[in-house]
Write a structure and sequence with these properties.
flat, alpha+beta, 1 helix, about 40 residues
């Protein structure tokens, strides 16, 4: 997952960028669960 999920901290805000162009549905429920735990 780390290949296409990037984290960037800006002041007190964390920006999460998800880029997986080769897959139409880039997110699965497992990925969303992992991201929400961070």
């Amino acid at each position: 997952m780390s290949k296409f999920v990037k984290f960037h901290d800006l002041d007190s805000t964390r920006i999460i960028t998800i880029d997986k162009p080769e897959t139409k549905n880039a997110l699965t429920s497992e990925m969303l669960s992992t991201i929400s735990e961070i």
